[in-house]
Queue: 2 jobs
Job 1
Amino acid sequence: MRFLVELDHVKTGQPFTEAAARAFIEGIIFPTLGRAEQLAQEGRIVAGGPVAGRIALRFIADVETVQQLDQIVFSLPLWTVAETRVTPLIDFSDRRAHVQAFLQGTNHEG
């Protein structure tokens, strides 16, 4: 099963001090990038990456179960300070089959 995962850092409105920015980078950003790279090497993340100019990630996860997906998202340090959206995806061929079945069903009603 594939899912589009979107994580966006939630801004508090308070600018980071230099020390806080460094701590955030070292404690959240670098570990998140490292974990995402590991998940990509394992084939769990099949596409995507960091969003240019933002503290955000977008990726396609390929998992066997929703529980695996939840574990992946939870394992990303950014998750603790991010708004997260997950969208289930289906194959293009499945959508084509659903639309064809719909069209065949409407032909019999006319």
Job 2
Amino acid sequence: MTEPLTAAPAAGANSQNSPVLMSTYARQDVAFVRGEGAWLFAADGERYLDFGSGVAVNVLGHAHPHLVEALTEQATQLWHTSNLYRSPGQERLAQRLCATTFADRVFFCNSGTEACEGAIKAARRYHYVNGHPERWRVITFEGAFHGRTLTALAAAANPKYLEGCGIAADGFDNIPVSEPEALQAAIGPETAAIMVEPVMGEGGVRVVPAEDLQLMRALCDEHGLLLIFDEVQTGVGRTGRLFAHEHAGIEPDIMAIAKGIGGGFPLGAILATEKAASGMTAGSHGSTFGGNPLAMAVGNAVLDVVLEPGFLEEVSRKAARLRQSLAEIKDRFSDLVLEVRGEGLLMGLKLNPDVPVADCVKAALAEHLLLITASDNVVRILPPLNISEDDIVEGTARIARALSKLTVPAR
């Protein structure tokens, strides 16, 4: 696995600021050309352990043979026809998602932000077709992240992301999470839904307590609201359950998913009960590329693996091992690491505020380990769900080596 690669990097690939790409990312100065399992290979032949999974996307690692086979076979048959015609792949994947979740209806799109926007639209349309067009506002929570489109940014209400984008879209009441009185006070005659991530990944790997999610469900039932879960990052096994809300023993009315369901191929979906989907009538929504045959082949292949007997139990077992190792790291580097957060294989280390999280990610990269930043000075740890025990040991050892190179500045 350590043989040098012959592929040359593309022009500008070894520069964080390519002259031909918009400067919207602070890219790390490494270009990957091949992946295998939990490992990535750079253009110079060096290999890196991937504890970021493309930001929780590559749930089965890189170049998983079953996914490669499914995509290759479909690519030789049919790529795209649009949603003007029936799609056997869509129907099969939708049936499987409905059979394993609360949902009765599915709409396929291409990304998490599209799924979140569609979920908001579905909630508003539900009240509209049921005679309450005044109910269009959605309660959301501080620190959330629902995507980069203008409506998704307005839903999360993060000033940093909204800067320079004009007046934020109306219709959202953003409140602190885990404050029951604020939640109840936010409900009014115009409220249509409550929207929440069971684990706020981008927002600092903050787990929303089960009792808070249960209260949201109860309030929605009491006031005739719809409960929307954004499981773009937490879904498809990431937390040890197929979906994170299962830990709380409740079900939403609408759910947005993406990332893991495509295993690396762009794929998102809106899942809903029959009632919640009642406003999504012919012509009310659409997507040119959503649910194309290539995406459906890969999505079905992902479910083939994730739904295998014992797979999710194995994820939980590996997650317990990872958490234990991270707790040991916290004890060893108590001046640097303040808290271990997360659920399943969506973990985070809350760092000392005097140590920028970007410094930790950079130090890890020097150890040939990929980590992801998050808000609240948290480093995200997102290995593939099928990662080996040996790679967990190796990855946590590299985290420890990276932390050993950091210091807390003297005050």
